[in-house]
Design a protein that fits this description.
Blueprint lengths: L2 H14 L2 H10 L6 H26 L13 H23 L4 H15 L3 H11 L5 H11 L4 H15 L1 H12 L1 H43 L1
């Protein structure tokens, strides 16, 4: 396993536990009279949007970030150092930011409207609200560094997309198995899950920042 593989794994974990994405995903499957319908279409939108980005990148970016030596390309190293700084700033804000009841209320009101909307609107909401967001550029770079073919890039991106949306997929499966119990459990544990996810995500992001900084410095000093 290379350092790039480690970084990609950390990016996938961080995207999976992103507090904002996780919040919207949990709320999507507990609101409305048809949580399974809402959750499924929300997932379709998020997965479709994420996959579209990866397929485009497979042909536009490809292996542009791949290095033929033991250290990253100079521009990749610079991106790593800058990204490490941005990740640490995000972690600081994430840890210091207290819970905002007004923001939570706005999110619930927004998702309540989505839950009662036509399927196409739910798909659009999923594409906009449950994609990996700011972690997409990092994941694109990491995969490109592995020197993939276009087909391998698409496969790797597909696996990243599945990993980043795993909590939402798990909730949908749980709804299929035991709808009422799952909805009650998620509704009661939503705030607890979000707090735990924030703590775990912060730890993962610190590890990711350290890995990015290490590789970036190595590339700039080699």
């Amino acid at each position: 396993m290379t350092s790039v593989d480690v970084e990609l794994g950390l990016v996938a974990l961080a995207a999976m536990l992103s507090p904002t994405t996780l919040s919207f995903s949990v709320v999507a499957v507990v609101l409305g009279d048809q949580p399974l319908r809402t959750g499924a279409w929300f997932y379709v939108g998020a997965l479709g949007a994420t996959l579209a980005v990866g397929v485009i990148a497979a042909f536009v970016l490809g292996d542009a970030a791949a290095s033929h030596g033991s250290t990253p390309k100079t521009w990749v190293a610079i991106v790593d150092v800058v990204a490490a700084g941005l990740v640490l700033v995000y972690v600081t804000r994430l840890v210091r930011r207290p819970a905002d009841p007004a923001q939570a209320a706005r999110m619930i009101a927004r998702m309540s409207k989505v839950a009662s909307s036509p399927a196409i609107a739910i798909v659009g909401a999923g594409a906009a609200l449950a994609n990996p967001g700011g972690f997409i550029p990092l994941a694109l770079k990491e995969i490109s560094e592995t020197n993939p073919s276009a087909a391998q890039y698409v496969i790797d991106w597909f696996l990243f997309a599945l990993a980043s949306l795993l909590p939402l997929a798990a909730a949908i499966v749980m709804l299929l198995v035991a709808r009422e119990q799952t909805a009650r459990t998620l509704r009661a544990a939503r705030e607890w899950l979000e707090r735990r996810a924030r703590t775990i995500a912060a730890a993962i992001l610190i590890l990711l920042a350290a890995a990015l900084l290490r590789n970036g410095i190595a590339g700039l000093t080699s």
